């Protein structure tokens, strides 16, 4: 196996870590203690454990919100410790369990408190996090879909961009993602997952079943496109840094991403993973519904190039809109402060809660 | 004049910029366009203008919150463009005006909307920003005091740590600070400023006049100590990275800080500035009231060393508490995510709104 230099990896992903809630100082400490790639998980776990200790101190002092904020940080650190650690299933399981536990303990006490809602799907359940905006319902609602190596914990701050604008959010660990990755594999289709999620989400009091959209990041952008194209009940879809075809993107994927895709799709080796990647495509799955779809893509995306964004947009025809950001990287983490509101505002206009622009 | 290398300056202050709301990507762009120190303001102003253009786009699309979020970023960028630019009063005035305007336009539309409340003081007025927490009053309230080169705009995100915990906040440009720096000089005493602020703050509906504390950062920590020690109506005080004596700190101050102190205290030259610094001391001003005071200080603070923190703490005797953070830098910007909640929780326990620790 050809592991990457962990310090270069940390630098490369700085914007992703920070824009999703890892304190810059923690990232510097973690990076400073990295040795080789196998040391990555331990470095992040130590930092997460430190945050949990601070959280326990805060809790003893009666500071419930502070404890929750620190547990959210710990959850993110455990998550980023294990997110690409598929070669070490022991660490992957330990990190996933610690991340999920810290997050579940934090959720009820954070701003816009969250609650875990399990989605019955394919004989099992998928854990989702439901959060409601301030103010009375019925609320429009957004289904948020993580990518190949993300999980519901990582989308916590992104979901607040919608919450601040009056939308409820539901972030789900789909099959093969986060807590679900040990019992299921990443599917190439997401229509049935979306149907299960919608069945659960529309049953939550306060959610307006007529105003639901789906937003996915990275591989989740592909999933959002699959779902928007054919799952009844969705009013709009967004891909943020998503792809049209995993096989087309394969040559530009880093080793760790290929390995994660291989393991999470249950492929025995890389050729089998590439064969799986052929299935992850919108080709042959034309939209069954006339649905607005937004594609937001960074021109500096080194994983999914502009061809992917253009095909994804063309897939939805006249009702699609493509926003290209010349300086944006993969998933536009570097421009998250500006692009995430852009996504939320676009969705909200479609769902009828903002005045439409002249 | 011996100007610093602007890129080194930007790196040195990264945590301060980011922890107060400058997007990391903007900071990278700004740093990449720096030439010499005189180019600093223009680089920040360009970025702020870009954010204002994005804000105008958002506003045209009906996205009021997004426009406000972008204007807050612009306000911070204009602020950090001019915060140490005392050698160029034209840029200093332009940046101050642009920062204040963008901030004033943003304030009513941001979470915990703010409103400008002018504080009558010494024949003029000092602009303050009042923000109230969610939920019904009467609320405890925190007076937040900027330092030598900060301004009310820079404390916007810090104030939200208090707002999330149910406290109202009032951030003021004191004499010689921010918008007030052209009409007044930095005073060595702040007791009378605090009295003026309290007179205004206690007149705002919803503020509990019996539960007001003062929190200052850097030189504002010294001001908080002056005020807490003798201004009636304050229940507690906090210094975050503050000092006991500016003259003692003088040798470790950077050129730009000395220059800013000289100009903002109205000294003709550096010896006169040092003479002014002798006045900025708690020596000879023992507390007239028995008041709890918290000193939070970073052991890696290169401007104000540990002696300053220890003397500040001893000044308040038995009711003082000193929290030292071994890894903290000046004002603990690198640990803001953890230290700011610690400050807010400490104040809130004293003001009687959190269960007291066992």
TrEMBL record, chains A, B:
Keyword set, alphabetical order: Hydrolase
Record carries keyword Methyltransferase: no
Keyword match Cell wall biogenesis/degradation: no
Recorded GO MF terms: hydrolase activity
Family as reported in the entry's similarity comment: Belongs to the AB hydrolase superfamily.
PANTHER family (alphabetical): CONIDIAL PIGMENT BIOSYNTHESIS PROTEIN AYG1 (AFU_ORTHOLOGUE AFUA_2G17550), DIENELACTONE HYDROLASE DOMAIN-CONTAINING PROTEIN-RELATED
The protein's name in its UniProt record: 2,6-dihydroxypseudooxynicotine hydrolase
């Amino acid at each position: 196996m050809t592991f990457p230099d962990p310090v270069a990896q940390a630098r490369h992903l700085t914007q992703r870590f920070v824009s999703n809630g890892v304190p810059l100082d923690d990232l510097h400490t973690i990076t400073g203690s990295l040795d080789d790639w196998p040391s990555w998980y331990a470095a992040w776990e130590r930092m997460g454990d430190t945050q949990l200790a601070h959280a326990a101190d805060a809790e003893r002092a009666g500071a419930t919100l502070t404890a929750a904020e620190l547990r959210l940080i710990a959850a993110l650190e455990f998550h980023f410790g294990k997110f690409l650690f598929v070669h070490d299933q022991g660490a992957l399981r330990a990190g996933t369990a610690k991340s999920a536990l810290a997050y579940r303990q934090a959720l009820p006490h954070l701003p816009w408190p969250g609650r875990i809602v399990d989605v019955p799907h394919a004989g099992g359940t998928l854990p989702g996090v439901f959060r409601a905006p301030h103010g009375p319902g019925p609320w429009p609602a957004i289904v948020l879909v993580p990518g190949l190596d993300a999980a519901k914990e990582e989308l916590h701050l992104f979901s607040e961009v919608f919450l601040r604008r009056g939308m409820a959010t539901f972030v789900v660990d789909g099959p093969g993602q986060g807590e679900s990755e040990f019992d299921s594999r990443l599917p190439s289709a997401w229509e049935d997952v979306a149907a299960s999620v919608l069945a659960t989400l529309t049953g939550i009091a306060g959610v307006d079943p007529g105003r639901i959209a789906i937003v996915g990041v990275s591989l989740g952008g592909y999933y959002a496109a699959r779902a928007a194209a054919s799952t009844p009940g969705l009013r709009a879809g967004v891909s943020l840094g998503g792809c049209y075809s995993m096989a087309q993107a394969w040559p530009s994927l880093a080793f760790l991403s290929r390995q994660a895709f291989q393991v999470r799709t249950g492929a025995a080796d890389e050729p089998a993973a590439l064969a799986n990647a052929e299935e992850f495509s919108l080709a042959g799955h034309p939209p069954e519904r006339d649905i607005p779809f937004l594609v937001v893509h960074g021109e500096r995306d080194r994983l999914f190039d502009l061809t992917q964004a253009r095909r994804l947009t063309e897939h939805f025809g006249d009702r699609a809109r493509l926003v290209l950001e010349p300086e944006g990287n993969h998933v536009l983490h570097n421009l998250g402060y500006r692009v995430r509101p852009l996504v939320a505002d676009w969705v909200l206009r479609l769902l009828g809660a903002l005045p439409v622009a002249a």
